[in-house]
Design a protein that fits this description.
The chain is an alpha/beta fold. Helices cover 39% and strands 14% of the residues. An 8-stranded parallel beta barrel has the order 1-2-3-4-5-6-7-8, surrounded by 4 helices. The protein is globular.
Length: 283
């Protein structure tokens, strides 16, 4: 079964009540895949479900009803102050993500937000590992891994960001860097079913530069190979790997054609009307 296309919009520290309401209004009125966000699987449970392995039964339902599943998942990540505003006004089928989460469930951690608090507020996703937090805030691989673990334990889906700097790419260390970042998470997390991996070359974020389709596909394929050898073949086949780094309406369709690119994490362009064109890159 094909992996569900995933498009995330990371607003970063941008927006006001007025501008975010305008973005939401535009998304609500946009012509998207009519099945966007639908994950309901129809079917009648057998009379003795306790006799079946529930995981196998769920897979049988998914295979049987594959044509009824959503072909597209859309998530936006506004600043924390506007998470509830976005959740309240967004159309059904588009989810909201936090840009950050802490690795503890509660306590004396001024300024932080826990996975439990996000879930309690109807927020179903969070980002972890974004390069701006790695570089500017100084978050290291082990801390990002612990935040990812906590978010999953708290019932959230995670958009796990990884990527190399220009210096690392020019030194031919791209694969070493991204697999090291993944390995830190793999040491704490065994179930990757609620993780979306976002490959974002740091040198392409907000610079106008973008990895070529060949460069992006090459790294995505290596990430999938790592999942197969380190996590499981099932994780390799089913984990969505999305691309981020100056994605625009001009380059999204070519990128979306690549075998191992399952969507996008969009930065600045998610604040513009053209975000809808990126969402519909496979339409």
């Amino acid at each position: 079964m094909a992996r569900q296309f995933f498009v995330g919009g990371n607003f970063k520290m941008n927006g006001t009540i007025k501008t975010i309401q305008e973005i939401i209004h535009h998304l609500n009125d946009a012509k998207l895949d009519p099945k966007t966000g639908i994950t309901h699987i129809s079917g009648v449970l057998p009379s003795t479900p306790q006799l079946l392995n529930l995981r196998d039964f769920a897979r049988q339902l998914i295979l049987r009803d594959a044509d009824r599943l959503s072909s597209l998942e859309v998530v936006i990540a506004p600043p924390a102050l506007y998470l509830l505003l976005a959740r309240e006004h967004l159309r059904q089928g588009i989810e909201v993500a936090a840009q950050n989460v802490f690795n503890k469930p509660n306590g004396a951690f001024t300024g932080e937000i826990s996975a439990e608090q996000l879930k309690d507020s109807g927020i179903r996703w969070t980002l972890t590992g974004h390069s701006e937090r790695r570089v500017i805030i100084g978050e290291e691989n082990d801390f990002i891994a612990s935040k990812t673990e906590a978010a999953l334990a708290g019932g959230l889906g995670v958009i796990l960001c990884i990527g190399e700097t220009l210096e690392q790419r020019e030194a031919n260390k791209t694969i070493d860097v991204v697999t090291t970042q993944l390995k830190a998470v793999g040491e704490k997390v065994k179930d990757w079913s609620k993780i979306v991996i976002a490959y974002e070359p740091v040198w392409a974020i907000g610079t106008g530069k973008v990895a070529s389709t060949e460069q992006a596909q090459e790294v995505h394929a290596e990430i999938r190979k790592w999942l197969s050898s380190t996590v499981s073949k099932d994780a390799s086949a089913n984990t969505r790997i999305i691309y981020g780094g100056s994605v625009s309406e001009k380059n999204c369709r070519d990128l979306a054609k690549q075998a191992d690119i399952d969507g996008f994490l969009v930065g600045g362009a998610s604040l513009k009307p053209a975000f809808v064109d990126i969402i519909n890159a496979r339409a």
